[in-house]
Design brief:
The protein is an alpha/beta fold. About 35% of the residues lie in helices and about 15% in strands. The protein folds into two domains: about 110 residues, 2-Layer Sandwich (Enolase-like, domain 1); about 240 residues, Enolase-like C-terminal domain (TIM Barrel, Alpha-Beta Barrel), CATH 3.20.20. The strands form three sheets. Strands 4, 5, 6, 7, 8, 9, 10, 11, 12 and 13 form a ten-stranded mixed beta sheet that branches. Strands 1-2-3 form a three-stranded antiparallel beta sheet. The protein has a two-stranded antiparallel sheet with strand order 14-15.
Amino acid sequence: MTITDLKTFVVNPGNRVPFGSGWGKNWIFVKLYTDQGLEGVGEAFSTGQDLATVQVLEGFKRWLVGRDPTRVMHHWQALHRSARYPMGTASMSALSAVEIALWDLTGKAFGAPIYRLLGGPCRDRIRVYAGGLLVPAAADQVAAARALVQQGFGAIKFWPQPAEYAGESGLALVEHAVGLTRTLREAVGDGVDLCIDYHGRSFSPAEALQTVKALEGFGLMFLEEPTLYDNVDTLAELKAKTTVPIAAGEKIVGRAQWRELIAKRAVDIIQPDPVVCGGITETLKIAAMAEVYHVLLAPHHASGPVAMAACAHIAACAPNFLIQEFGVIDSACTRAIVPEPLQFREGYLDLPEAPGLGIAFDEEAARAYPYRPFDRPVVIDRRDGSIGFE
């Protein structure tokens, strides 16, 4: 079996946002075709420079066409090493998409789900938390949290900052975080795990530590990215001063920084994103590094339904897996392009049983949701006009 073609599909689900172009982010899918009629699908992360990622994928096509798709690691090494210099986010996202598509094809070629080719499942189902659903702009976060619990979620994640957080004083941000967390804890009870995504929004580790310390009494499952990801020592220092489990890693794309983050015990939980850090196998290698240090795995997910499926196979076979971010909101677009998604039941995903990723991708439906320019938000401090971090 050989690869005959590679096509990309940049899908915009149609969400509107109050910044930039006015359109929400795209989903970037890649599809591989073979001379035996089998097809494999993968997904890349939307960095905002989506057309750059598409161009990288077109370059990868020249290597892949005419080759055996089941040599997953061989192709990963060829594409990764041929870059000469360290790959950036757009290139690593493209490589991640190709690797996932190769695994999808390999699973279909052998008639088995991907996780069975990686040693079989470590668990019977995959625990998930609702991620990206409780945003500061929500009119009533209490109602939103209760609705998620009614849907079956046993864990939810929210942002502790107010919608207009830029320009707020440090004390005001701490008080808002504490008040919101207390309100949500009272609303959902002690039986629901609460996770907080600080989103690395403070350039001041001291300010972040004040927030973390103030939240120690609420039994949080974890607090994500209390400081900017690019200084591991700062994160390690903060972690050493709190009892709240610290999670981070969604923005890391290279092994060297993963090694530093894990070896310095800067986090309790790693959050690699498979569609940006190198794909399924690379995520499992990162998880194995973490396992040696008794660090848990909670893969990041903020992309489309193909990325969600890739996360599920990682979660199925990683021994140190904790919980999976569940970020695909049910929509007409999602239902059209993946008509038979993974099954969610009472806070868990069922293990995929069909070969490969276990989902089908409708490319005709994908064409009905074409690319739209997407600009990531720029945060401006309303007191002095400086640029903040989002």
